[in-house]
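Weekly puzzle thread! Below is a chain. First person to post its structure in token form gets bragging rights.
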Amino acid sequence: MRPLETWIRESVLLEKVSSACLRYDAMDHQAPQGLAGVYRPFDPGQIYDWVDLTLVFAYLDALGTRGHILDVGTGDGWPALPLAPFVQEVVGIDLSPRRIEVACENRNRLGYANARFVVGDARTLPFAEGSFDGVVVGTALEQTDDPDAALSEIRRVLVPKGTLVATFEHLAAELPAGAEEEVELFQKGTSFIYRYVAKEASPPREAEYELTLDPPRALQEQLELAAATFPRRPGFVRHAGEPGARALAGDVASTFGLGFLKQVQAAISAGRYFEVGHVDLSSLEDSLRRAGFGEIAICGRITRGAHPFFIGLAEAGILKTSLAPHFETTCAAFAALWPLISPAEDRVLFVRARRTG
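Winning reply:
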């Protein structure tokens, strides 16, 4: 545990909540708004759409079915919505009401009548045994309080020999330094919000803290200045008007790290947090087998190979010309290579497992 996290744990009265409550309900959009297949149709004129569609076809190839599919932890509709044109039906479930609201908006805009979304808990899925031919998960199970319970529920709602295809964050590859910390500070009404996120590779875990600061008069000016000067992050932010999280390093660490919190400790009026465990290569296979899965394949994501491949074709001038009419077939052909991608150095693991019994 990092020194800043230790100080927060020892110095602030914290309420433990779910990641859905603290993180995902607080996002306007969980993914970048230009994400193909979720916020807009795929376009062969966009280079990275070839990479993303290849991942969708990897899900389909690994599933081995185009029947009734469940997407657990669907967020804004990934991968449920990109899969919808290729399967009989897809149902997305998420613990966050806000994410389901956005997923429904995306479905309606794309016009998919065979996709529906419900609020629910992965640990107690509201479906009968054997309801689905396949289940997909996009880096969501590690955000549950009990991934083993979620895996057992997924097995229950699968038909016999039904397939689970899931991606998992792989912190051992994601964190070459063994740990990562991010902070964010902004004003919200008359209060200030300080967010702190910590990830550690050994044991693999993630925690997020949200501190509410209601400053006495003596600290008001200091906090207003600090929030106004917090460096804005280009690109993705959780909510309009927020600056975005920045790595706790360099000037950010010296200005907004532990020393800053100690200075404004008198202003901290409330705190919430969640903490979740992650998997590594060995623990993931053990968890799957305990839950009743076999025929387990753990790979890296096909996007690691697809990215340089399609960039090369684009630079050769053939991706948007002679290959464009064969967009789907080209992506599907490359996607079949998914079992060949090594998991060891990949930041995201791609897993296929079948229900036993």
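Puzzle host: Confirmed. Bonus trivia for everyone else. The chain has two domains: 3-28+174-277, 47-170+279-355.
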